[in-house]
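Re: your question about Transcobalamin-like C-terminal domain-containing protein

S., sorry for the slow reply, the queue was backed up all week. Below is exactly what I fed in.
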Amino acid sequence: MTVTALLTTAQLLLVSVTLSHGDVSQDSPITLIVFNSFENTNLTYPTTVAYRGILLGAMRRLQASDHSFTFKTREDDNYGPFLVSVNGLAGTEKDRTYWELLVQSADGAMIWSDVGVGCYIPRDQERIILKFRKY
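Result:
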C-alpha cells in the first residue's frame, strides 16, 4: 500500500468512528446524587464525564470545582479504587455501613452497578446514586 492509500484508510476509519460514536471531544452531562438512607437526605450535583471516561474522573473533576462535594477512595490490589467516604461520611465494618453505587439511566431504569467508581463508564444523562446504607 502506498502512503496515500494508508492515509485515506486512516481518515475513513476516523470518520467512521466519529459518526458512530458522536463527538469524542464533547463531555456528557450526568447527575451525581449523594443519598444518606439513615437521614433520608440527598444532595444533587450536576457534572460531566469525558467520552468513555470513568466515573472516578468525573467525581475528581466535581470535587475540584465544587467544594461542597468531597470523597475518598482506598486502592484495593484486586479491584481498584474502593469508595470509602463521601462528604466526610465513611462506611464502617462496626456499623456495617457502606456506599452503594446505583445507576438510573435516562429512560428511568435503575441498576446496581457490578463495578466500582474506577471502572464504571457513565452514559449521557445518567443519574449516578451514591447511597449510604447498611449491609
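The first strand starts at residue 28 and ends at 36. The beta strands are 28-36, 41-49, 71-76, 80-86, 89-90, 97-104, 110-112, 127-134.

Happy to talk it through on Thursday.
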